[in-house]
């Protein structure tokens, strides 16, 4: 068990976002966090990363409450890739990736070979090695995002949190990043939690899916069991079908257009519910 | 489903590492070269600036005085020459250099910390806050020195911290410091405190020149005793800044990323703000408000040495010293009548257009 969430309420000032969350994540799991816009996926990741203190309940990372972990130790365990990154100072991409070594470097210590190897390796893995000397302010959005992913890998974390980290990347780059995550997950036991919108990408790589809706965890289970048309249609309020790919046998979702009939069916269902209550 | 073209295997430590290492060392060598060149130019400038003045003193006499003070020359010296060279000129050149170094490094810290390329002790009102603190103490009759230390820089520190708090509160919206409002708040606080300084000084029936001294900055009539006031603040401020230069790099990426990378954001930010305030307070307590040094120098150095704050701090200290030494020389000799200009007038004349250029070019590139 590396993450344990108990009776957790999250929110900002007077606005509650998530209530009554209980779950745990074991070492080496690959978890996709899914749900409609504004359901609180980012909020949950922010809380696990220690940025947003819980309103109630606890988040335990390894054996301690995440808020009580010393900053550097926390960053040795947890790395975070945000949705997008805005850097204003013209650091080179290698300098940015080396910042990922901060929690593992001694104050005023010189740059060791271990640090440099970790940085170079993670740049190669994210296909950003050719950007080493380029300024982060001059590379494209997608390149910048991959550099930030490289920086997170250079932290050599046990847990990686990704918040829509690959949304801005093209198909090939998305698959490359997830292939790396899968590799590190399988060979090093890296625990991965990613909030995402791309259902089929989630179905392809995540072994466990957590659906968040209306401030609660709606469904949580192995991908094979929960990636069903009923659950997807319910969570996203959209008619969907799930098909198995004839080659790799993984499921993928197909959305159906919102026809007038679906609207009528929805209205009828709502009316029935209203009548029952 | 395996994709073989992906570099999954561990990096071979040989070639790539050696290449990166050598590039890293080339960077370090360039930095060392810049450091040495700037230091040499600085020493040369101190000598040259000491030679410039109304009284014509030969280089031989200057060398004799300086060597005499260092105990390397034992010949007899003219008393007047000794006082002018050592007591008046050299002390003033050294003081202007130290103030320039303090203001430039304070500018580096403020720009990195507040993520704002226009931040500097002057533009965000911290200098004026410090000047108000000192002016108030002077008016209340608190002064003198104790073991070479004066209470005046302490007043400056309190004033600087107070002004900074006011500016941060003013520019804060929904828990975040808005970049656009920061400079605006700085100008508001600075203008208000300038008016207060003028008021306090006028009530005290002091001459206009005392007001001008605090608001426009000057090294007129300053000597070794002021160097003594400044030095502890400068050393402590610089040491603190260098201790946390790596955190400063990361903080320049913003609060959230710094948190994720393991920086204890609030604590480190507080220490760095204290460092910048110490540097500003020390400088202002001996020279009044000198604008734009902390704005221009970091930008020039960043172009030459990149954004990494360890190097930026070291080179900015040297470049800041260099610029203010020559600005002060200009302020001494610019007017044909032999009167002095406040040095702040010179730095503003040079820095104003630069500020304008920065405002236009950053806007057009959408940097802020």
Q: Can you summarize this structure?
A:
Chain A has 277 residues and is of the alpha/beta class. Chain A has helices at 41-48, 71-77, 93-98, 113-125, 141-154, 171-188, 199-205, 223-226, 229-236, 260-276; strands spanning 3-12, 15-25, 30-34, 56-61, 64-65, 78-81, 159-163, 191-195, 208-213, 216-222, 240-244, 251-255. Chain A is built from ten helices and twelve strands.
CATH fold descriptor of chain B = ABC transporter involved in vitamin B12 uptake, BtuC
The main β sheet of chain A shows up as:
6 strands, mixed
Radius of gyration of chain B from CA coordinates: 23 Å
CATH superfamily of chain B: ABC transporter involved in vitamin B12 uptake, BtuC
Helix fraction bin of chain B:
over 70%
Low-confidence stretches of chain A: none
Oligomer: heterodimer
Strand content of chain B: under 5%
Most extensive interface, chain pair and sizes: A-B, 52 and 39 residues
Structure commentary:
In chain A, the strands form three sheets. In chain A, strands 6-7-8-3-9-10 form a six-stranded mixed sheet, with helices on both faces. A four-stranded antiparallel sheet of chain A has the order 2-1-4-5, with helices on one face. In chain A, strands 11-12 form a two-stranded antiparallel sheet. Chain A has ten helices and twelve strands. Chain A has a domain at 88-154. Chain A has helices at 41-48, 71-77, 93-98, 113-125, 141-154, 171-188, 199-205, 223-226, 229-236, 260-276, and strands at 3-12, 15-25, 30-34, 56-61, 64-65, 78-81, 159-163, 191-195, 208-213, 216-222, 240-244, 251-255. Chain A is of the alpha/beta class and 277 residues long. By secondary structure, chain B is mostly helical. Chain B has one domain (94-365): ABC transporter involved in vitamin B12 uptake, BtuC. Helices cover 73% and strands 1% of the residues of chain B. Chain B is globular. The model of chain B is unreliable at 363-368 (pLDDT under 50). At the A-B interface, helix 2, strand 6, helix 3, helix 4 and helix 6 of A face helix 1, helix 9 and helix 10 of B.
């Amino acid at each position: 068990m590396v993450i344990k969430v108990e009776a957790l309420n999250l929110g900002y000032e007077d606005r509650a976002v998530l209530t009554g969350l209980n779950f745990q994540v074991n070492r080496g799991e690959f978890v996709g966090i899914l749900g409609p816009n504004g359901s609180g996926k980012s909020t949950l990741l922010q809380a696990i990363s220690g940025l947003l203190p819980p309103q109630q309940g606890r988040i335990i990372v390894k054996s301690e409450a995440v808020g009580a972990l010393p900053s550097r130790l926390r960053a040795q365990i947890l790395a975070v890739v945000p949705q997008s990154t805005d850097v204003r100072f013209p650091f080179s991409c290698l300098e940015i990736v080396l910042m990922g070594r901060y929690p593992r470097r001694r104050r005023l210590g010189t740059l060791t070979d271990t640090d440099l190897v970790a940085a170079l390796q993670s740049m190669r893995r994210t296909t950003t090695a050719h950007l080493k000397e380029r300024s982060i302010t001059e590379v494209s959005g997608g390149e910048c995002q991959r550099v930030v992913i490289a920086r997170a890998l250079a932290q050599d974390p046990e847990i990686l949190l990704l918040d829509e980290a690959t949304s801005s990347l093209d198909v090939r780059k998305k698959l490359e990043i997830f292939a790396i995550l899968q590799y590190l997950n399988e060979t090093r036991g890296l625990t991965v939690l990613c909030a995402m919108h791309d259902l089929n990408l989630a179905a392809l790589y995540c072994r466990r899916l957590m659906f968040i809706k209306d401030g609660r965890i709606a469904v949580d289970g192995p991908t094979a069991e929960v990636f069903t048309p009923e659950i997807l249609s319910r969570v996203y309020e959209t008619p969907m079908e799930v098909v198995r790919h004839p080659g790799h046998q993984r499921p993928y979702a197909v959305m159906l257009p919102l026809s007038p009939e679906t609207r009528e069916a929805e209205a009828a269902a709502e009316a029935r519910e209203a009548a029952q209550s | 489903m395996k994709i073989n073209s992906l570099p999954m295997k561990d990096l071979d430590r040989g070639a790539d590492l050696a290449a990166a290492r050598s590039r890293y060392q080339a960077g370090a060598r360039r930095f060392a070269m810049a450091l040495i060149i700037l230091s040499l130019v600085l020493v040369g400038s101190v000598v040259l600036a000491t030679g410039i003045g109304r009284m014509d003193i030969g280089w031989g006499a200057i060398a004799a005085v300086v060597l005499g003070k260092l105990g390397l020359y034992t010949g007899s010296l003219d008393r007047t020459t000794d006082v002018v060279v050592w007591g008046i000129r050299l002390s003033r050149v050294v003081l202007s250099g130290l103030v320039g170094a303090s203001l430039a490094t304070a500018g580096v810290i403020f720009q990195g910390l507040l993520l704002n390329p226009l931040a500097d002790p002057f533009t965000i009102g911290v200098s004026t806050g410090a000047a108000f603190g000192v002016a108030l103490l002077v008016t209340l009759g608190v002064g003198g020195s104790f073991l070479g230390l004066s209470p005046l820089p302490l007043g400056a520190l309190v004033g600087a911290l107070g002004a900074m708090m006011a500016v941060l509160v003013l520019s804060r919206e929904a828990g975040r410091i808005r970049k656009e409002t920061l400079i605006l708040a700085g100008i508001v606080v600075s203008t208000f405190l300038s008016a207060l300084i003028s008021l306090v000084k006028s009530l005290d029936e002091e001459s206009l020149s005392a007001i001008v001294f605090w608001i426009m900055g000057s090294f007129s009539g300053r000597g070794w005793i002021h160097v003594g006031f400044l030095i502890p603040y400068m050393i402590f401020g610089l040491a603190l800044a260098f201790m946390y230069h790596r955190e400063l790099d990361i903080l320049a990426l913003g609060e959230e990323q710094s948190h994720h990378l393991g920086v204890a954001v609030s604590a480190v930010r507080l220490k760095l703000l204290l460092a910048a305030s110490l540097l500003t307070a020390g400088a202002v307590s001996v020279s009044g408000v000198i604008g734009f040094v902390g704005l221009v120098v970091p930008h020039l150095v960043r172009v030459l040495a990149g954004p990494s704050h360890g190097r930026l701090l070291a080179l900015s200290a040297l470049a800041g010293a260099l610029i203010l030494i020559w600005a002060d020389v200009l302020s001494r000799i610019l007017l044909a009548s032999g009167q002095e200009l406040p040095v702040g007038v010179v730095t503003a004349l040079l820095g104003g257009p630069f500020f304008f250029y920065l405002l236009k070019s950053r806007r057009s590139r959408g940097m802020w």
